[in-house]
Amino acid sequence: MLDIFVSYCQKDKVYADFMDLYFKDKNIKIHRDIRDIKDWKSIKEYMQTIRDMDYAVLVITNNYLRSFNCMYEVLEVMKDSKYKDKIFPVVVETSIYSPQGRILFIKFWEQKYDELSKQLKQVDVVNLGSLPEDLKRTQSIASSMSEFLSLVADMNNPDISDVNVAIENKLIEHGVLSDSVEVSTGHPNPDIFSLLNIPRVYTTSEPTDLEKNQFMIESFKEINQLLGQLCQQLQNENSNNQTMIDQVDTRTVIYQFYNNGNQIRGLKLFIGNTGSVK
Q: How many domains is the chain built from?
């Protein structure tokens, strides 16, 4: 059983959710904070376990690169001298591929360090407790950011839609995962469509108008079912958030999002005359 640590920002948990779905029936244990940190247990102790894992998946988003906890996990994995061989970056924040983009995140952490340093100077030294350790870690993040981002930017990172299959192929290539599941046999690999039970058509013939329409309607149903589940999950996590879903007809659904009873967003999802979902 391989142990893979998924490092991600809670705001971007959808990427970790899809990874969970993809690897759930394989000989891999996905470690996530939502399962592995028990009530009242230390978050930092959990984050330090990333060094003990066989591999680490880093979901690199804008939120991730600005999160103290996420970057603390990066610092922990970088303590391993061979960390370059055990990470799988999932790059969502593509601005890091340019020097200008990487500089923005370096400056962000430099500013965080300066702000925290100034605040600590306003506190009596006898009352600081462990706060200087937080300042030291912030400095470490700022000083390590260039090395980390340059390494990731230099890697041939797969597209987000292909990353789970790419990870599986790489593990098989390393000889640490059995290829009992067909991966490179010429058959379609499992992807987001199969995870959502949306049928894909593999044919050399042009689909008929009827087949196109049937596919769009079924896919439209699946999309709305998933959105409904996400809305319910959001409401379960925070009772201040509510969603009203109005099924106008088989081709139109209206979503209205509320916070504390006040409408904050609206979404109209429908199948247009050309058969496209809008």
A: 2
pTM of the model: 0.66
d(CA 231, CA 133): 39
150 and 200 part of one domain: no
Span 159-182, average pLDDT:
83
Give per-residue pLDDT as tens, 183-194.
443 344 445 555
What is the CATH number for 93?
Answer: 3.40.50.10140
Q: Are 54 and 77 in contact (CB under 8 A)?
A: no
pLDDT band at 214 (very low <50, low <70, confident <90, very high): confident
Contact 42, 16 (CB under 8 A): no
Residue 226 lies in a domain: yes
